[in-house]
Amino acid sequence: QVQLVESGGGLVQAGGSLRLSCAASGLTFSRYTMGWFRQAPGQQRHFVTAITWNAGDGYYADSVKGRFTISRDNAKNTVYLQMNSLKPEDTAVYYCAARLRGIVTTKEDYNYWGQGTQVTVSS
Hints:
Blueprint: E1 3-7, E2 10-13, E3 18-25, E4 33-39, E5 46-51, E6 59-60, E7 68-73, E8 78-83, E9 92-99, E10 112-113, E11 117-122
Parallel strand pairs: 2-11
Antiparallel strand pairs: 1-3, 3-8, 4-5, 4-9, 5-6, 7-8, 9-10, 9-11
């Protein structure tokens, strides 16, 4: 079955950096658009960024544009999220997700999800 496993979360001070990874198995990774979403306590899950199957330009939420970078390595079945200049408002559980077609920002349109990794940014 399809599995997406996130890693790399943790506690970091404001202004710091983290790199999240999401390792995929059970699917033809190179065919899938991969996205990152996040969910803060008491809030809905929101789109962060996504990248197409051929690692074209990523698409970013305005709140992270210029600070976060998505990338992928199809040989390793892994998608990454480099997060720089982190802010306390970036604190959330971060989820990776996969879908077969192009980039969309609606969580309902992603078919597969990981279990999430916690990112906490202290002020």
